[in-house]
Specification:
The chain has 138 residues and is an all-alpha fold. It has one domain (22-137): Up-down Bundle (Four Helix Bundle (Hemerythrin (Met), subunit A)), CATH 1.20.120.400. The protein is built from five helices and no strands. One of its GO terms (molecular function) is superoxide dismutase activity.
Protein backbone atom coordinates (compact mmCIF):
# COMPACT_ATOMS: atom_id res chain seq x y z
CA UNK A 1 0.00 0.00 0.00
CA UNK A 2 1.35 3.43 -0.95
CA UNK A 3 1.07 6.17 1.69
CA UNK A 4 -0.35 9.51 0.68
CA UNK A 5 1.84 12.36 1.82
CA UNK A 6 0.35 15.77 2.66
CA UNK A 7 2.10 18.70 0.98
CA UNK A 8 1.73 22.44 1.50
CA UNK A 9 2.11 25.33 -0.93
CA UNK A 10 1.82 29.10 -1.09
CA UNK A 11 -1.80 28.58 -2.06
CA UNK A 12 -4.00 25.62 -2.88
CA UNK A 13 -3.52 26.19 -6.60
CA UNK A 14 0.02 26.87 -7.87
CA UNK A 15 -0.94 30.37 -8.93
CA UNK A 16 2.49 31.80 -9.70
CA UNK A 17 1.45 35.10 -8.16
CA UNK A 18 4.22 36.48 -5.97
CA UNK A 19 4.77 39.95 -4.57
CA UNK A 20 7.23 41.71 -2.33
CA UNK A 21 4.58 44.22 -1.24
CA UNK A 22 3.24 42.28 1.77
CA UNK A 23 6.72 42.06 3.32
CA UNK A 24 7.37 45.74 2.65
CA UNK A 25 4.07 46.84 4.18
CA UNK A 26 4.74 44.61 7.19
CA UNK A 27 8.24 46.09 7.66
CA UNK A 28 6.83 49.61 7.33
CA UNK A 29 4.26 48.75 9.99
CA UNK A 30 7.02 47.57 12.35
CA UNK A 31 8.74 50.95 11.93
CA UNK A 32 5.46 52.82 12.43
CA UNK A 33 4.63 50.91 15.62
CA UNK A 34 8.09 51.73 17.02
CA UNK A 35 7.40 55.41 16.24
CA UNK A 36 3.98 55.31 17.88
CA UNK A 37 5.35 53.56 20.97
CA UNK A 38 8.09 56.19 21.29
CA UNK A 39 5.50 58.97 20.99
CA UNK A 40 3.09 57.39 23.46
CA UNK A 41 4.60 58.92 26.58
CA UNK A 42 4.02 56.98 29.78
CA UNK A 43 1.66 58.71 32.24
CA UNK A 44 2.92 59.39 35.77
CA UNK A 45 2.39 56.45 38.14
CA UNK A 46 0.05 58.54 40.27
CA UNK A 47 -2.16 59.56 37.33
CA UNK A 48 -5.81 58.75 37.02
CA UNK A 49 -6.61 55.11 36.64
CA UNK A 50 -8.27 55.69 33.24
CA UNK A 51 -5.14 57.37 31.85
CA UNK A 52 -2.94 54.62 33.21
CA UNK A 53 -5.15 51.91 31.70
CA UNK A 54 -5.46 53.76 28.39
CA UNK A 55 -1.67 53.98 28.16
CA UNK A 56 -1.19 50.28 28.85
CA UNK A 57 -3.99 49.33 26.46
CA UNK A 58 -2.42 51.38 23.65
CA UNK A 59 1.07 50.11 24.40
CA UNK A 60 -0.08 46.49 24.44
CA UNK A 61 -1.93 46.87 21.15
CA UNK A 62 1.02 48.56 19.45
CA UNK A 63 3.41 45.86 20.63
CA UNK A 64 1.01 43.17 19.43
CA UNK A 65 0.71 44.77 15.97
CA UNK A 66 4.51 45.21 15.79
CA UNK A 67 5.06 41.53 16.59
CA UNK A 68 2.33 40.32 14.22
CA UNK A 69 3.77 42.32 11.35
CA UNK A 70 7.34 41.25 12.08
CA UNK A 71 6.14 37.64 11.85
CA UNK A 72 4.15 38.37 8.69
CA UNK A 73 7.23 40.02 7.18
CA UNK A 74 9.30 36.94 7.89
CA UNK A 75 6.64 34.63 6.47
CA UNK A 76 6.31 36.63 3.25
CA UNK A 77 10.09 36.77 2.74
CA UNK A 78 10.27 33.01 3.23
CA UNK A 79 7.50 32.48 0.67
CA UNK A 80 9.57 34.38 -1.89
CA UNK A 81 12.68 32.45 -0.87
CA UNK A 82 11.17 28.97 -0.94
CA UNK A 83 8.59 29.33 -3.73
CA UNK A 84 9.73 32.10 -6.08
CA UNK A 85 13.52 32.46 -6.19
CA UNK A 86 15.26 29.86 -8.34
CA UNK A 87 18.92 28.78 -8.78
CA UNK A 88 19.26 31.18 -11.72
CA UNK A 89 18.40 34.06 -9.38
CA UNK A 90 21.14 32.94 -7.00
CA UNK A 91 23.62 32.91 -9.83
CA UNK A 92 22.78 36.52 -10.65
CA UNK A 93 22.48 37.58 -6.97
CA UNK A 94 24.94 35.36 -5.07
CA UNK A 95 24.34 37.11 -1.73
CA UNK A 96 20.56 36.61 -1.89
CA UNK A 97 20.67 33.71 0.57
CA UNK A 98 22.54 35.88 3.09
CA UNK A 99 20.12 38.78 2.55
CA UNK A 100 17.09 36.56 3.15
CA UNK A 101 18.70 35.06 6.26
CA UNK A 102 19.56 38.54 7.60
CA UNK A 103 16.04 39.86 6.96
CA UNK A 104 14.43 36.89 8.72
CA UNK A 105 16.77 37.29 11.69
CA UNK A 106 15.89 41.00 11.84
CA UNK A 107 12.18 40.16 11.75
CA UNK A 108 12.69 37.87 14.74
CA UNK A 109 14.71 40.51 16.57
CA UNK A 110 11.94 43.05 16.02
CA UNK A 111 9.53 40.70 17.75
CA UNK A 112 11.86 40.55 20.75
CA UNK A 113 12.40 44.26 21.33
CA UNK A 114 11.25 47.80 20.76
CA UNK A 115 14.15 49.31 18.83
CA UNK A 116 13.82 51.85 16.02
CA UNK A 117 17.28 51.07 14.64
CA UNK A 118 16.45 47.37 14.30
CA UNK A 119 13.09 48.24 12.73
CA UNK A 120 14.76 50.45 10.13
CA UNK A 121 17.35 47.75 9.42
CA UNK A 122 14.48 45.33 8.74
CA UNK A 123 12.81 47.87 6.49
CA UNK A 124 16.04 48.37 4.50
CA UNK A 125 16.70 44.62 4.25
CA UNK A 126 13.20 44.03 2.92
CA UNK A 127 13.62 46.92 0.49
CA UNK A 128 16.82 45.32 -0.86
CA UNK A 129 15.09 41.96 -1.32
CA UNK A 130 12.20 43.76 -3.02
CA UNK A 131 14.64 45.40 -5.42
CA UNK A 132 16.11 42.02 -6.35
CA UNK A 133 12.61 40.59 -6.72
CA UNK A 134 11.64 43.44 -9.08
CA UNK A 135 14.79 42.93 -11.12
CA UNK A 136 14.01 39.24 -11.57
CA UNK A 137 10.54 40.10 -12.90
CA UNK A 138 11.99 42.09 -15.86
Amino acid sequence: MKLIETVYAHCDIPCGIYSDHPSQIAADTVVKMNEKIAELGEPPHHSEKEKFLAYHNSLTRMILVKEQHAELCKREILILWTDYFKPAHLEKYPDLHEQIWKACKLASKNKQEINMQTAKELQEAVHEIGHIFSETKK
